[in-house]
Design goal:
8% of the residues lie in helices and 28% in strands. The strands form 4 sheets. The protein has a 6-stranded antiparallel β-barrel. Strands 10-16-15-14-13 form a 5-stranded mixed β-sheet, with no helix packed on it. A 3-stranded mixed β-sheet has the order 11-12-17, with no helix packed on it. It has 2 domains: 7-136, Beta Barrel (Thrombin, subunit H), CATH 2.40.10.170; 148-282, tm1086 (SG structure) fold. The chain has helices spanning 75-84, 118-121, 154-159, 280-284, and strands spanning 13-19, 30-31, 37-38, 46-47, 67-71, 90-93, 102-108, 112-115, 129-134, 148-149, 162-164, 170-174, 176-178, 221-228, 234-245, 259-266, 270-274.
């Protein structure tokens, strides 16, 4: 059966933000794990052609942020957007040619990231105002007291396959299992902010850097071994964290595709089911979620 939650007691807040431009500085170049300089697009703005269900790696990009990158101009209001927006929350466009269209939050990075159908994304531009219907922080799984929910809307819990098993464990379907040695940048940060980068998904940079994660897709639900994200992010043997891949290709050493935290607790509290279809696209994409020319996005 589905996991029982305290969803009826959660507060919903209306948050505002805007599509933020891509930013750079005068230094320009960054360095990859083999010492090669590069200048590549990635963070900020609107990234076209990359959605949940599409591959997360293999692009000529660095710190790739799929969809629209959203923040608020006021620093304090922006932190509220970062902390209170949860995966699965609805995002409505309020200005520009795409006004009235809706998408959904897929995670946090330097910005809150929102996925929209490709025809909608193609009409977005920086400065477009958006409204996020934020609910989920404070979510508890009432029959799983040892598991802590983070950045997870109650609608996502309802949509995900699995739930409470007769033996008391929480069944979660995952598209990939991530070894502890893959966990990179993001350790030590609070788990409501940004995400955790995964090393070992450096496509084309040699077998010595591969941990078999090149097939990760944006929106994949993944299990992070020996990670405790209940009150921060860190290595703790015997614990498990469930996340969702919210960012893509990154060339900086110690960085990579990044999962936003959803659930964390003792590994013994979970029952994992390997399921390649465990991806946000399976639950949030409609028939119109196609590229502008009518074809599905690359890598599906």
């Amino acid at each position: 059966m589905k996991a029982a939650t305290n969803a009826a007691r959660l507060v919903t807040q209306v948050l505002t933000g805007e599509v933020w431009p891509a930013l750079a500085d005068r230094h320009g170049y960054r360095i990859d794990p083999d010492g090669q300089p590069f200048v590549l697009p990635g963070m900020g703005g609107v990234t076209l052609g990359v959605h949940c269900g599409d591959r997360a790696t293999g692009y000529a990009a660095d710190h790739l942020e799929p969809g629209a990158s959203i923040r608020h101009a006021d620093p304090a209001a922006n932190m509220a957007v970062q902390f209170l927006s949860c995966v699965g929350n609805q995002v409505r466009v309020d200005s520009g040619p795409a006004a009235g269209a809706t998408g959904h939050v897929i995670g946090q990075h330097a910005y809150v990231l929102a996925d929209f159908a490709e025809p909608v994304a193609a009409m977005l531009t920086t400065g477009d105002a958006v409204t996020i219907t934020a609910t989920g922080q404070g979510l508890r799984l009432t029959d799983h007291q040892h598991i802590v929910a983070k950045n997870c809307s109650p609608g996502l819990i309802e949509a995900m396959p699995g739930g409470s098993r007769p033996g008391g464990r929480l069944e979660v379907h995952v598209a990939a299992r991530i070894p502890a040695e893959a966990i990179g940048a993001g350790v030590g940060m609070i788990s409501e902010y940004a995400n955790t980068d995964l090393m070992g998904a450096y496509e084309g940079l040699g077998d010595d850097l591969s941990l078999g994660l090149e097939s990760l897709r944006v929106g994949d639900i993944v299990a992070l071994a020996d990670q405790d994200h209940r009150y921060g992010r860190g290595y703790r043997p015997g614990y498990l964290t469930i996340g969702v891949i919210s960012t893509g290709q990154c060339l900086l050493f110690g960085h990579g595709p990044g999962p936003s935290t959803l659930l964390s607790g003792p590994a013994s509290a979970f029952h994992l089911v390997d399921d390649r279809d465990a991806n946000l696209a399976a639950w949030y994409h409609g028939a119109s979620w196609t590229s502008a020319d009518g074809a599905d996005g690359a890598g599906r």
